[in-house]
């Protein structure tokens, strides 16, 4: 069997030679062109597994080749080589459909990574371009036109290395979409690592992202990898990316640009190969305007945007979603179905917490349903449909808790707490319990009442050991 053939398009003889030698050493066949015209001729005559093209050529720009190949019938991955510091060109090429980019000076290890990823993609990329059909099971449920469109986009995004920014309200399925992009990509057999940027204490961030060397700080008893190394060869999802502190944004930008990271306490950098997907329920452009998010990082992460529609914009998915969720929640001897009136009530609800809220509602409703049928009163939704909260259910969570006011203000004798952190934990624990009691343990609604994200609430509940009452 012959080796995959790569086309290198570059007018700089030195760089062309470096590329050729590296590719030949990798056991690949290489053709070279020093102009667009020559490249077009070769493309018409041969099959290529990958095209590597410089941006600036004597008779035009590499981006023209990207456009031509993307518009053609054969789905050949194209990677562009951009001049040092020209982030604009890289972003333009990715938006135009380039598979990836290499920046000058081209490093051999980076070139190898791009080639490996591209060849992996080529093997799975036998479907015609823009095909919605995919052999990998898609886990985002929904038959609405909006969800079909999302799935089409996911199938397309899975074939590229371009950073994707997934936007959408909390609970609308951003993480699930990111997982789908990963599992349909050539990286599927490598790790998918999702990081909640809002849940990591700022002091630990660098160590968590990049890892650390033994002895780098007190408590660093051994070398440890960070998220970047853990996701090596796979996909790193930066969830709630707007919560990253500015100092960490600078370090992250550098890691993305250089594709190298340095462990805390290390002297040398190491190459990393991850595909980045970011997500936030905030408006990142607004965060940039307000100076809370660096524009250069925004630009790097936001190359292609995937928007997940809120559940209220696809109410026709509720029946299907409810069926899937109830089937997932069912245990032997405990399953439930929705009464038609209950389904109706759900379809009239606005779901500020989206699919996660639907999951919460159905989980609670299942506990209240008699004879395995969920009726309207079993659905504890806002807007007057909620039945009264049974006091017995909440006894363990709030009955004994003093009001937060009595805790948060100093006692009359002005005594001070013996431990400020423990005292603050107590206050936080009681406030969270009150919010949970108020919402019948609907964590989505409780998070909203408290003005924090669902994940922040979940993180705090774990930390403070707050459990759902039996
Ligand atoms: N289309 C869908 N089909 C099936 N389950 C879904 C769908 N969308 C979301 N879910 C479920 O809803 C829950 C929330 O989804 P996910 O964590 O992906 O949302 P998110 O947008 O990332 O939320 P957040 O902004 O709070 O991080 C998960 O349990 C997920 O499995």
TrEMBL record:
It comes from Actimicrobium antarcticum. The keyword Phosphoprotein applies. PANTHER family: RESPONSE REGULATOR PROTEIN PILR, TRANSCRIPTIONAL REGULATORY PROTEIN. The modification 4-aspartylphosphate is found at residue 54. Keywords: ATP-binding, DNA-binding, Nucleotide-binding, Phosphoprotein, Transcription, Transcription regulation. The lineage of its organism: Bacteria, Pseudomonadati, Pseudomonadota, Betaproteobacteria, Burkholderiales. Residues 5-119 form the Response regulatory domain. Residues 140-367 form the Sigma-54 factor interaction domain. It comes from the Bacteria. This is Sigma-54 dependent transcriptional regulator.
